[in-house]
Amino acid sequence: MVSGWEWDETLFSGAAPYYERGRLPYAPGLAKALAGALRLDGRGRLVDVGCGPGTLTLRLAHLFREVVGVDPDRGMIAEAGRRAAGAGLTGKVRWVRARAEELPAGLGSFTVATFGHSFHWMDQERVARTVRAMLRPGGSLVHVADLKDEVRTHAGLPYPGVPHQKIEELVQRYLGPVRRAGQGVLPDGTPGGERDVLARSGFSAPERHVVPGGQPLDRTDDDLVAWVFSHSSAAPHLFGPRREDFEAELRRLLREISPPGLFSERLPSTEVFVWRREDTFAEPERV
Question: Which end of the chain has fewer CB atoms at under 10 Å, N or C?
Answer without folding.
Answer: C
